[in-house]
Design brief:
Blueprint (H helix, E strand, L loop, with lengths): L2 H34 L1 H7 L4 H28 L2 H20 L4 H15 L1 H13 L5 H18 L2 H6 L5 H22 L26 H9 L5 H30 L3 H29 L3 H14 L13 H12 L5 H8 L6 H30 L1 H22 L10 H6 L1
Helix pairs in contact: 1-5, 1-6, 1-7, 1-9, 1-11, 3-4, 3-5, 3-6, 3-16, 4-5, 4-6, 4-9, 6-7, 6-16, 7-12, 11-12, 11-15, 11-16, 11-17, 12-14, 13-14, 13-17, 15-16, 16-17
Length: 422
């Protein structure tokens, strides 16, 4: 590739990456924000724990419902169009949620936010597959999580402190405005693939003419009927789903009501967990690419993640910092699920990468959507003891994810679908 074309390629690929990262950070902010605002939201809507869980769960149901459609659209029409539509929808939802005064309207707002926030991650992974070398995919997935989780970090202790200065409604509305700006920039500067700018793929892969590709229905059917896709699905359900359910809402109430921390200290614990998660995800993806190891690394960290729930079944010593250590370890170990995106892509047709990732992602949000109101009902029914039951439930579901991990295929960073076809 000539030097000028290489410079243009690098500029275009990183422009697409960083602008989409902004939209992804916003989606992560919305996912975790209810944890820092749980007390304010419960007061604002006079909500029970079950209703609070439902307000948060609507977001995950909407994200879950959009995963496969997003993958289909990203693979057929391209990720750029759906990214712009997602930003507009999420912004509208933020404005509705910020102005809501009843549980019902709050659910509508959170649902719209979820529909829009469902888009950036699958679209970004599709863009990564189109713009970057396959040898960089797991590394880029880790980098994506690192910066995406900055949105989560901003919605922990920083959001809790900000809510003491200005109303949470102002913050959510402001994030809605930022989302619109991100959508406009993506519409102007992002393209679906190098060929749209007359540039070659970094791996030298020839673009597949649209007429030679099977219909999206057949592509989706091939992904869903591929037995090697489903262990990825259940790893996401068990490990990522429990991590989402806990950090997105119940971690702060657990620390405040069960452990006896202040709201500020509880938010700081969640910040530590997410920060450890973000940094570890970056290094895990890079290590996986360099070592050519997916399954082994996932199982090691998945086992640590499962064990990390055990100390939470009883009161922890906050004075000695035991609680911070447990949250840090859990944050690091929870990154095990991030390797399933690379595996899902590598056991399916490259032209169906978005659909494979969409199917896998559905499980994560499905688990969070089911677990959050279920945990709320346990707390409403059993009070303080309900917290213990909730942690036990999260540990059990994590065990399901670890068992599924044992059924994964080790791809060693290669697309074994293509190798089998050849």
């Amino acid at each position: 590739m000539e030097a000028n074309a290489q410079r243009r390629l690098r500029l275009a690929q990183w422009t697409a990456f960083w602008l989409t990262i902004v939209a992804y950070m916003v989606s992560f902010f919305h996912r975790v924000a209810p944890a820092a605002l749980s007390i304010e939201l419960q007061k604002a809507f006079s909500a029970t724990s079950t209703e609070l869980g439902s307000i948060t769960a609507v977001f995950f149901f909407a994200v879950m419902a959009m995963q496969i459609p997003t993958g289909v659209i990203a693979d057929t029409l391209g990720p750029r169009r759906i990214l712009v539509a997602g930003c507009v929808t999420a912004a509208l939802g933020a404005f509705v949620f910020a102005s809501a005064h009843t549980v019902e309207v709050a659910c509508i707002g959170r649902g719209l936010i979820g529909l829009g926030a469902a888009v950036p991650f699958v679209a970004l992974l599709r863009l990564n597959a189109s713009w970057f070398s396959a040898r960089q995919f797991a590394t880029l997935s880790g980098l994506t999580l690192l910066f995406g989780n900055l949105g989560s970090i901003l919605s922990t202790a920083p959001l809790q402190m900000m809510s003491q200065v200005v109303s949470w409604r102002v913050v959510i509305g402001g994030i809605g405005g930022l989302t619109l700006v991100a959508g406009a920039l993506i519409a102007v500067f992002v393209r679906d693939k190098p060929a749209d700018l007359g540039l070659p793929h970094p791996d030298g892969q020839p673009s597949v003419p649209p007429r030679s590709r099977p219909s999206w229905v057949r592509q989706l059917r091939d992904v869903v009927t591929n037995a090697r896709t489903w262990p990825c699905f259940w790893v996401g359900f068990g490990i990522c789903g429990t991590f989402f359910a806990f950090t997105s809402l119940w971690a702060v109430p657990y620390l405040v009501k069960f452990i006896g921390l202040s709201k500020g200290e509880a938010s700081m614990h969640v910040l530590v967990m997410i920060l450890c998660h973000s940094v570890t995800a970056l290094f895990l993806g890079r290590a996986s690419d360099r070592l050519g190891n997916r399954k082994g690394l996932l199982l090691i960290l998945g086992t640590v993640y499962l064990v990390s729930w055990v100390p939470m079944l009883g009161p922890m010593n906050t004075f000695s910092g035991e609680s911070y250590v447990v949250f840090a370890i859990q944050g690091m170990a929870s990154t095990s699920y991030t390797l399933i995106w690379a595996i899902a892509k590598e056991v399916n047709d490259p032209n169906s990468a978005g659909m494979a990732i969409g199917v896998t992602n559905t499980s994560m949000f499905m688990a969070a959507a089911i677990l959050q109101p279920l945990i709320g009902s346990l707390i409403d029914r059993f009070g303080m003891q309900g917290m213990t039951y909730s942690v036990a439930l999260l540990a059990a579901v994590s065990g399901v994810g670890l068992l599924a991990g044992m059924c994964l295929v080790e791809t060693r960073g290669r697309n074994i679908y293509i190798e089998r076809a050849v």
